[in-house]
């Protein structure tokens, strides 16, 4: 059985690593912020003091990091992954980063006689906890076949996207749709609230008609309870939309809806909701219409 190294124990990484442990894999973990590994240690994980120590102890290294700069630190920094990578290792990055950086990692890891897959995920925190994530994977098909069961321990679907960088490109395109969907849902709710429509009735209608979406399904109970605890944060969505905007410019692809919605999330960020769930974008609409868009106000989430 492969020895797994897991770097990045945040909202997504911690439950992903936990599912590997529950499936019987030996897992060595590392997080840049101390104190995040306690529950994983109870499940049997070992904890490393550096990312290099994780690479040295592992056949497969998985990273789940928040942004490009942090990925560069983990891979290229002092005691980084690249400095301790063993020939024959497989590195899987499930972060959402720029395709250009993913392609650079493919090249630099290949130079170490190891293999790399860019394999970001979709499904947010609930799917990470239940082991039902979807992986979109860029890289060599034979390498993917080698680690298929490892990814399967954390997800329900693994979709090959093409050569190196394709997983990252697909993720930015996917999250563009997600960000637009949530903004569209909230805008519709603002119209309904302004017209005196009950929020629960309106959301039931949305899920029963042509406006139905996975985001409406996930966010309906949170919006009705005004629970803005993080499944996927507004700040991370804004980061992804910024990356998608840069990518679309590189690809010379017009994205007028993306640019408008990116501005909405920038407003939410400026209002102080970066660390809340992306559905906290609701607060921007509530300011504009001067009333709540759901029936409950003043609860703990406020």
Automatic annotation (TrEMBL):
Keywords: NAD, Oxidoreductase. Residues 3-162 form the 6-phosphogluconate dehydrogenase NADP-binding domain. It holds the Pfam family NAD_binding_2. InterPro entries: 3-OH-isobutyrate_DH-rel_CS, 6-PGluconate_DH-like_C_sf, 6PGD_dom2, 6PGDH_NADP-bd, HIBADH-like_NADP-bd, HIBADH-related, NAD(P)-bd_dom_sf. SUPFAM superfamilies: 6-phosphogluconate dehydrogenase C-terminal domain-like, NAD(P)-binding Rossmann-fold domains. PROSITE patterns: 3_HYDROXYISOBUT_DH. The keyword Transcription regulation does not apply. Residues 165-283 form the 3-hydroxyisobutyrate dehydrogenase-like NAD-binding domain. PANTHER family: 3-HYDROXYISOBUTYRATE DEHYDROGENASE-LIKE 1, MITOCHONDRIAL-RELATED. Belongs to the HIBADH-related family. This is NAD(P)-dependent oxidoreductase. It comes from Paenibacillus artemisiicola. The lineage of its organism: Bacteria, Bacillati, Bacillota, Bacilli, Bacillales.
């Amino acid at each position: 059985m492969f020895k797994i190294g897991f770097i990045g124990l945040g909202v997504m990484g911690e439950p992903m690593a936990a599912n590997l442990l529950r499936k019987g894999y030996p897992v060595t973990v590392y997080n840049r912020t101390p104190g995040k590994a306690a529950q994983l240690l109870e499940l049997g994980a070992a904890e490393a003091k550096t990312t290099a120590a994780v690479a040295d102890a592992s056949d497969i290294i998985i990273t789940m990091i928040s942004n490009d700069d942090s990925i560069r630190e983990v891979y290229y920094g002092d005691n980084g992954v690249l400095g301790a990578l063993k020939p024959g290792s497989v590195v899987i990055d499930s972060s959402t980063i720029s395709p250009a950086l993913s392609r650079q990692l493919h090249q630099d890891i290949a130079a170490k006689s190891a293999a790399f897959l860019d394999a970001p995920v979709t499904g947010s925190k609930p799917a990470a906890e239940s082991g039902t994530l979807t992986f979109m994977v860029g890289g060599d098909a034979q390498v993917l076949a080698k680690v298929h069961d490892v990814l399967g321990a954390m997800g329900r679907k693994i979709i090959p996207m093409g050569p190196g960088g394709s997983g990252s490109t697909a993720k930015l395109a996917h999250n563009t749709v997600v960000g637009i969907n949530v903004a569209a849902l909230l805008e519709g709710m603002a119209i309904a609230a302004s017209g005196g429509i009950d929020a629960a009735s309106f959301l039931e209608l949305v899920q029963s008609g042509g406006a139905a979406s996975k985001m409406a399904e996930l966010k309906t109970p949170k919006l009705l309870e005004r629970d803005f605890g993080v499944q996927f944060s507004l700040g991370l969505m804004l980061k992804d939309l910024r990356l998608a905007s840069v990518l679309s410019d590189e690809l010379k692809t017009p994205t007028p809806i993306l640019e408008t919605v990116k501005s909405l999330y920038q407003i939410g960020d400026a209002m102080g909701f970066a660390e809340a769930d992306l559905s906290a974008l609701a607060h921007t609409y509530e300011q504009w219409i001067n009333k709540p868009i759901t029936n409950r106000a003043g609860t703990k989430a406020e």
